[in-house]
Amino acid sequence: MRKRLIVGNWKLHKTASEAVAFVYRLSALAQAADDVEVVLAPPFTALQATAQAELPAFPFALGAQNLFWEDRGAFTGEISAPMLKELGCRYVILGHSERRRIFGEQDEEINKKVQAALRHGLRPILCIGETLTEREAGQTDRIVTQQLLRGLDGVAGKSLVGVAIAYEPVWAIGTGQAASADQATAVHRTLRKVMTERWNSREAEPVRILYGGSVTPENARQFLAAPEIDGALVGGACLDPQSFATILASAQAQQG
Ligand code: PGA
Q1: CA-to-CA distance for 65 and 12, rounded, in angstroms?
Q2: Structural contact between residues 7 and 125, judged by C-beta atoms closer than 8 angstroms
Q3: Cα–Cα distance measured from residue 89 to residue 122, given in angstroms and rounded to the nearest whole number
């Protein structure tokens, strides 16, 4: 069975000192569990403080929210995989819909970022998802398949084990209007099938497929109860330690 993965995507929230306070509070509220992996993805400026605030009683992995594909050079404002590795990052969120929509990221660039992450031993969390217009036009499967295959273009089957996919319907992100567990399950099945056909079942099997988009303490359990849903990418609800701890507890309860 794939180990569940719960990722807190802080987006543009929390300074370094706020991050430290958050980690202490979360550590007091959340239980560590061997069968659920927790990733905190603060802004770049809070990565180091977040890592240093980790307490033995509540282990988590550190994730970044983006990277640039070159290791170094004249790329003002960018951050590279080796820089993130040295700070202790193990994961990196790539291709988030806000990066696609607001910053114009295309599948081709996202693919270069995925390749750079894997080259340096960072685990990419590749975000994909359709807009409401695309869903209403019956294009969901086509869009997510395209984003998946373009995002993972050139990735060897043996590297897939380090990849996680986050299915995040654009219309569900930050809107309070989550997909239903059935809607998410259907897309997750499609994604698993596409990966199995493109690589093979042995290589596609360990890839975790997360759901993201208005996950809350109230609805987390219904997503995590589905065997096709291997975890969650949580935005708004991860900023409050109590609500994130409740979501983590839902993931743990599903294991038993
Ligand atoms: P949300 O964000 O939980 O606030 O909808 C999810 C995400 O953008 O990853």
Answers
A1: 10
A2: yes
A3: 7
How far apart, in whole angstroms, are the C-alpha atoms of residue 200 and residue 169?
A: 26
Q: Does residue 33 have a pLDDT over 80?
A: yes
Q: Is 108 a catalytic residue?
A: no
Check pocket membership of 212 for ligand 1, CB cut-off 6 A.
yes
| Cβ–Cβ < 8 Å for 87, 51 | yes
Task: Check pLDDT > 50 for residue 256.
Answer: no
How far apart, in Å, do the first and last CA atoms of the chain sit? 12
| pLDDT attached to residue 98 | 98
Cα 79 from Cα 203, distance rounded (Å): 30
- Nearest ligand 1 atom to the CA of 236 is 4
Q: Per the confidence metrics, is the pTM higher than 0.70?
A: yes
Cα separation, 128 vs 93, whole angstroms: 11
